[in-house]
Amino acid sequence: MNRKRIFTLAFAVLMLLALAACGTKNNDKMGDMSGNGSAMTGEAKNAEEALAMHKELMAQENALLSEKTELWEKVFMAADKGMTMQEDGKNYGDFLLKTIEDAKEEFSDEEYEWLKKSATEISNIENKLTKLEEKYPEIMQKSMDGDMSVPAGSDMTTPPDDGSMQKFPAFDGKDLDGNTVKSDELFSANAVTVVNFWFTTCNPCVGELSELDALNKELAEKGGALIGVNTFTLDGDEKAIAEAKDVLAKKGATYQNVYFDSDGEAGKFTTNIFAYPTTYVVDRSGNIVGEPIVGAITEKKQAETLQKLIDQALAADMG
User: Fold this and answer.
1) In contact, 177 and 164? CB cutoff 8 Å
2) Most buried among 162, 237, 246, 254, using CB within 10 Å?
3) CA atoms within 13 A of residue 208's CA, in its CB half-sphere
């Protein structure tokens, strides 16, 4: 069974904020975080044991990535953005090892050895995870269900009323044809706006463009819209804009894509997105609804979660 990974290295670090509770809860069972604990050496006798072992291994991996986060961030910053994709069942630890090796000159000898050792341990964990998933294919979704920021089955019909909703960062930009686009006008004109962040060399991003175009047409019938933000096009990079338009045309995607200055509020917000594609749902008031959807909406879990957030925004707009 393939475990598609769309995480960039820095996002793996970022996700620890959300997964910290998972690591804490399992601390009494995890034992040695070096990848040599019981989950690494033991064998699951049934699906229940496999599920527990899978969660323990994921927690071990998270714990390794939570150490010396400044080094992991340094690895990401040294890597080519177009090469930070990990998907289709490839071993994440092997991906990390290659990334670290390519950026070797950026680290001291001590840092390099630590990163290499940690990535090797992650590779061993990944091999064990793959074996579990091949033997017990049903455990993958169960193990990951607890890691979703917005579970598809949760009750999201009523938005919070405590003033805690985060505003989507304001921008005064343009679409790829040079037309002015202002965030306040964009959001206020739609009952719901879906904002999809992508880049041209991101395979999962490009792979969902057709589905996003279909979603935009559905939203239009409900008073909503979908826009894309290709991060390569920020600051009006003409070459990147031409490449993005070409990719969109080939995929038959006609919905509006926008760009803005990288040093503005929205630009700075974009630089802190470390996983692609990432999709936000924004209401008419410019508030971000729920948590961002990480991963392509071609995946069932992401599609269901996105629809929940859209429905929430539409229901709130109707009063």
Assistant:
1) no
2) 237
3) 26
C-alpha 61, offset from chain centre? 17
Mark out the alpha helices in 169-264 (DSSP H runs): 183-188, 203-207, 209-220, 238-250
Q: Which amino acid is at 153?
A: G
Per-residue confidence (pLDDT) for residue 13, from 0 to 100? 41
Strand partners, 258: 175
* Helices first, then strands: H and E counts in the chain: 15, 7
User: Where along the chain do its domains lie?
Assistant: 9-145, 172-317
Measure Cα distances from 280 to 7, 139, 199, 248 in Å.
Answer: 17, 28, 15, 20
Q: How many residues appear in the chain?
A: 319
CB atoms within 10 A of CB 24: 11
Predicted pLDDT of residue 300: 87
CATH topology (fold) of 172-317: Glutaredoxin (3.40.30)
Q: Measure the CA–CA gap between 71 and 113, rounded to whole angstroms.
A: 12
The secondary structure of residue 97, as a DSSP letter, is: H
> What distance in Å separates the CA atoms of residue 271 and residue 274, rounded to the nearest whole number?
8
Strands annotated E in the chain: 172-175, 180-182, 192-198, 225-230, 258-259, 278-283, 293-294
- Output the pLDDT for position 98: 86
Spell out, as residue ranges, where the chain has pLDDT lower than 70.
1-41, 76-90, 138-164
Rounded to the nearest 10 degrees, the angle between the axes of helix 69-78 and helix 92-102 is: 70
pLDDT one-digit tens code per residue, 153-166: 333 333 344 445 78
* DSSP bridge partners of 173: 181
CA distances, 184 to each of 112, 189, 237 (Å): 46, 8, 23
Using an 8 Å Cβ cutoff, are 84 and 76 in contact?
yes
